[in-house]
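Subject — a protein and its fold
Encoding — discrete vocabulary of local shapes:
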Amino acid sequence: MAETEHGKIYESHVLLNSTLDSVDKAEEIVLEAVKEMGFEEDDGHQIGMAIRECMVNAVVHGNRYNAKKHVHLDVDATPTQLTVTIGDEGEGFDLGSLPDPLASENLLRQSGRGILLIRAFMDDFDLHPRPGGGTEVRIVKNLSRP
């Protein structure tokens, strides 16, 4: 683990296309940081799933597969914390407009559980308007060392 002068052991800033192939690419990039940090395998799977959910939301719901729009991926890892920011260039999103995925009328729906999973798998979740338009999600996973 090589640490930079700012305490980071991994840093990546990537502009991705609005395609489902970018979902795989983003997961690969983040899992490289996860590996560098030494997360347990189960944590790695959960982080990977959270990244996939964020990316699918950005590509499908945010950018609506628009080839002229991109997904912004920033990954910053210190020895104890992984921070991932994913931003789309869509029309914006109001978290309060989401139906409760645990409500009885929504239990059999095939979509709508992504943010629930992201919140369950990560230690911190923040969704806000992206500067310049769109939506930005910042998720954090802390690494507890024995």
